[in-house]
Specification:
Structural class: alpha/beta
Bound molecules: phosphoric acid mono(formamide)ester
Number of strands: 9
CATH architecture of the largest domain: 3-Layer(aba) Sandwich
Largest sheet: 5 strands, parallel
Strand order of the largest sheet: 7-6-5-8-9
CATH class of the largest domain: Alpha Beta
Number of helices: 11
Distance between the termini: 25 Å
Strand content: 5-15%
C-alpha cells in the first residue's frame, strides 16, 4: 500500500481511510465542520490554496465528487483543471501515468483521481514528485475516502456520539467502495454496532467487513437502527442476474416507509447517490423527513475543502 504520510507525519495523500487513526479523522471532520454553511449562506472563501493547481482526472462518471472537489478547491483559492478524458490523449492510448507526468510538468500540485481499475490512485501517488499529492475520488470497488468522511460528518451532525449508534449498510455491499470506506471510518470512530444487509449475491466475502453483523433479510437488519445507509446496485461491476431485476429487488430490499418504521423512530437515511428511486429506495423515503441525503451532498464540499487544506498544510511555509 502506498504510504499516505510524509516523513514528518503530515498527510500527503488520501487514497484510503485504512490506517488513519481516530485523531486524524476527528481533525478532518472538525475542520470540515468549520467549512459547513447553511443553505443560502455565503460560501467560505480563503487563500489557503493560493498558488496551488488541482487536477480532476475522472475516468468514471461523477456528478457530486467531481463538482464538489472543484468547488472546494476554488473556494480555497486554487486553480482547477478538469481533464475531459474522452477528449484527452488517454483516448489515443496514453497511459494514466504518462498523463499524470504531463500534468505534473504543467505544475499540477494535487491530483484527484477516479478510476474503475484497482490501484490507479496508488500508482500515481507512488510516481509523482515529492511535493505532489494524490486524493482518491473513488477507486474501483475498493475505496472512496472523502465519501466515507462526508458520511461520518453527516452522521455526527445528526446523531452525535458514534459509540451509541447502530448503523445498517444496505444493498450492494459487495461491489461498493462507499460501503468499504464507511466501514473503515465508522469502525475507527468506535461505532457501537455495524450491520450489513444484502442478498447473498451482493454480500461481501467472509474475510471482509470484520466486526459487522450480516443480515440477508432487510426487515431483520433494520430493527432499531439509528442510521440506514442505502446503496445503489453497481451494475457496471457485475454480470446481470434475474434476482436483481429492479421490481424484484425493490420488493425484497427497497427501503419503503413501512420498512423504515422498523428502525429507530429518529433514524436517519443516507444514500451516496446516484439513487435509483423505486429500486433501492422509495421516493417517499429519499425525500422524506428522515432523509439526510442532501446534507451528505452539502457536507461533501466541506469535507473536500478540509482534505485539500490538510494536504497543503503539511507542505510547509514555502510549499
Ligand atoms: N457519491 C458519489 O461518488 O457520487 P458521484 O458518482 O456523482 O461522484
Amino acid at each position: 500500500m502506498t504510504e499516505q504520510y510524509r516523513p514528518d507525519g503530515s498527510l500527503r495523500h488520501l487514497l484510503t481511510l485504512e490506517g488513519l487513526d481516530r485523531a486524524e479523522i476527528e481533525r478532518l471532520l472538525e475542520r470540515a465542520q468549520g467549512y459547513v454553511r447553511a443553505p443560502g449562506a455565503p460560501n467560505p472563501r480563503s487563500t489557503t490554496l493560493a498558488g496551488i493547481t488541482v487536477a480532476n482526472l475522472f475516468t468514471e462518471p461523477s456528478t457530486r465528487t467531481r463538482v464538489s472537489f472543484e468547488l472546494a478547491a476554488k473556494r480555497l483559492g486554487a486553480e482547477v483543471v478538469n481533464l475531459e478524458v474522452q477528449l484527452s490523449s488517454r483516448a489515443k492510448g496514453e497511459s494514466m501515468l504518462d498523463t499524470a507526468y504531463t500534468l505534473e510538468a504543467l505544475h499540477v500540485d494535487i491530483f484527484v483521481i477516479r478510476d474503475a481499475e484497482v490501484g490507479v490512485p496508488g500508482l500515481i501517488a507512488a510516481h509523482v514528485a515529492p511535493h505532489v499529492s494524490v486524493v482518491s475520488g473513488g477507486e474501483a470497488h475498493v475505496s472512496h475516502p472523502t465519501q466515507g468522511l462526508l458520511d461520518a460528518l453527516t452522521i455526527r451532525q445528526r446523531k452525535g456520539d458514534f459509540r451509541r449508534l447502530a448503523v445498517a449498510i444496505v444493498g450492494d455491499v459487495r461491489h461498493s467502495r462507499v460501503a468499504r470506506s464507511a466501514w473503515q471510518v465508522l469502525r475507527t470512530l468506535g461505532t457501537a454496532e455495524l450491520r450489513i444487509i444484502a442478498p447473498p449475491l451482493l454480500m461481501p466475502e467472509r474475510g471482509e467487513f470484520a466486526g459487522c453483523t450480516r443480515f440477508e433479510r432487510l426487515e431483520e437488519g433494520l430493527r432499531d437502527a439509528d442510521v440506514v445507509m442505502m446503496l445503489r446496485i453497481q451494475r457496471e461491476r457485475m454480470a446481470l442476474d434475474a434476482s436483481l431485476e429492479p421490481a424484484r429487488y425493490f420488493a425484497e430490499y427497497g427501503l419503503t416507509a413501512p420498512r423504515l418504521a422498523l428502525a429507530h423512530p429518529a433514524a436517519i437515511v443516507l444514500h451516496p447517490q446516484p439513487m435509483n428511486r423505486g429500486v433501492e429506495i422509495a421516493s417517499e423515503v429519499a425525500d422524506g423527513p428522515q432523509s439526510a441525503i442532501r446534507d451528505q451532498v452539502r457536507n461533501g464540499v466541506a469535507v473536500r475543502m478540509a482534505v485539500l487544506h490538510a494536504l497543503v498544510a503539511g507542505r510547509g511555509p514555502d510549499r
